[in-house]
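Input/output pair, single chain:
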Amino acid sequence: MICPVCHWQNFLGEDVCENCGADLSRADTPEQAPAFHGRLLGIPLVKLGAPRPQIAEGDVTVGDAIERMRRESLDCLLILEDGRLAGIFTDRDAVLKVGGNAGDRRPLREVMTRDPVVLRHDDPVAVAINKMAVGGFRHVPIIDGGQVPIGVVSARDVFRHLATGLA
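Output:
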């Protein structure tokens, strides 16, 4: 256990820091996470004005998807199967998984990221930041109660919101 005062590495379960004598008895007691209600991190995602999701079906070819993304300047496509979110295909996927090959005839479902991490419309900005940071994502779909995408929040949207709020 690391001492919160002097950052000394103590043995797990110690009640007093070996280095500085600080009380460690409550240092590893779980505490309730703070609720986010501030104007920057606490506003619900729906107030960010995230754009409507760009949708594609899983049987669209990778090449057609890449061409559409180029033509419409899209960063990602959400893939639906049976009307529900099945995956996401991003500009990063286009580069890393298929090398940007607009001639690739495979169906999009073969290269998409299946079962992406999602957010709810009433999740606060803080939750979006956490999920993006932990997962290394730049785009996270926003869904309604029935797994139907209603938006996509991007790192760009979050940074723009934070920069505007701090100005």
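Helices lie at 62-72, 91-96, 125-135, 155-166. The chain has a mean pLDDT of 86.
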